Amino acid sequence: MLMGLDIGATKILGVVASAQGEVLGSVRVASPSGGDQVVAAAADVVAELRAAAGDRTTGVIGVGIPGLVDVAHGTVRHAVNLGVADGYPFSARLGAAVGTAVVLDNDANAAALGAAALLGLDDLGYLSLGTGLAAALVLEGRLRRGAQNAAGEIGHIPVDPAGPRCECGQVGCLETMASGSALAALWPSGSGQPAGQALFDAAAAGDADAVAVRDRFAARVADAVRLVALTVDPAVVVLGGGVAQVGDRLRVAVAHALAEQAAASPFLRSLDLPGRLRLAPLDVPVAALGAALLGKPS
Amino acid sequence: MLMGLDIGATKILGVVASAQGEVLGSVRVASPSGGDQVVAAAADVVAELRAAAGDRTTGVIGVGIPGLVDVAHGTVRHAVNLGVADGYPFSARLGAAVGTAVVLDNDANAAALGAAALLGLDDLGYLSLGTGLAAALVLEGRLRRGAQNAAGEIGHIPVDPAGPRCECGQVGCLETMASGSALAALWPSGSGQPAGQALFDAAAAGDADAVAVRDRFAARVADAVRLVALTVDPAVVVLGGGVAQVGDRLRVAVAHALAEQAAASPFLRSLDLPGRLRLAPLDVPVAALGAALLGKPS
């Protein structure tokens, strides 16, 4: 059996999966802050998963984490939301704590691998629409991590000089307009319901403001899709991350925006971006499953 | 010996090269318009090259051409500047005319291969700053052409909603601000001198307007570099195409703009984009040489 952990800014989700990619069990805990604290919480998740699985998972454990991950050294940079210091020896510490090898990768990379396996694809761009915006690329069957592990960091490409300032220090970054936090800022949900759900429900009920906000947000996600398509041209672009939990209506809204963008451009139209858009599976934790697949003997 | 042709909107440049990538001879003619006309002119170039080389080049001939090239079928789409119709059987027609197999690829792809060979690199993004703007990607030693042969078409990614309308039908495309034609529009050269040369000379001579225009243009090229770096993260980005003929001062100006963009962003600064910028070799026709390498037995 395989074991994978998806470590995010708010939660750590661990799964046990079969070699065929079927999720057999999962454990979820809140994310603490700080390298040692995250390692300890992750080790607890591993122990719980092992207990539930009867301790049969002794292979390499795969872990996805936000930031620029050096896979060879098992370290991460810019994992600011988790308070993990640049160069903190994450894989080594977690490996020592759980007594088995750990392979660390970027969380969007893990999710892309999971989505590729579940959807049966070998060439795709994965858009992680979570708190932030990141992409991951599986090109002709191989993860493209990049020379400095920064492939897919499209959230920090500026696309509007008149846009808002980004936390990264630049202005008008795609992430400030096409991410879960951007959506929450556009449509604050008072109800405790996720902002995406509230927005898409209100739009479906005919609220004109909600329709306008939804379409504006979908157009910015379409910008991200077009950017990935015109740079690496993956066969398929998969929409994932927390925002994708609103379901297929997200894909429909973004496909509509892509068709509008292409209306005046025969060149764009010929690339059929709306037809190449997919939604990540909603009922499976794709990032944790993809992390588990990272540890699979090849 | 190898033979390669770089077919552009204004000229066809053919070279004969050694298997080691040394250019042994070249022929240049003006580009006609229309599929049959371009094939006939290309066949003339092949005949001249063969005559000069004493007819010893009988292997596969590589050809680079602007547009979305289907390498398997030897056809091209969107080669609008050459008047070649979508789906025109270019490889088959040229192959029949010259009596040997022809392999067709996108001209920026060919140039990227040429630059990779000349600079000894196996992971690079190549920016072709010609009439238009296109990129090409050699990732871990392999050309990334894309699922629909559209990888590297970054010229048609909009980066400013307030920007000019692009010929492709969209608004604010990168190509309208970071290409040879954008530069010529910013700094019309009355002298017959290339616009880039005139602009960089005037800026070097202290003309304040020229300095401002040069820096604005360099900032838009820096946008293109950053976009490629944050999407696929190649080890090196190479500046090529006609605009690069102004020499290393282009690299210096763009590196300066990249450093300015990163000044407010620790994240960008950590990626050291200025230090990863290179200029394509000026004294070698990189696209024609890369085309020749396309035909090299592997």
How are the strands of the biggest sheet of chain A laid out side by side?
A: 3-2-1-4-7
Largest sheet of chain A: 5 strands, mixed
CATH topology of the largest domain in chain A: Nucleotidyltransferase, domain 5
Q: What low-confidence regions of chain A span 5 or more consecutive residues with pLDDT below 50?
A: none
| CATH homologous superfamily assignment of the largest domain in chain A | ATPase, nucleotide binding domain
Report the principal-axis shape of chain A.
globular
Enzyme class (chains A, B): transferase
GO molecular function, one term (chains A, B): N-acetylglucosamine kinase activity
InterPro entries (chains A, B): ATPase_NBD, ROK
Family (chains A, B): Belongs to the ROK (NagC/XylR) family.
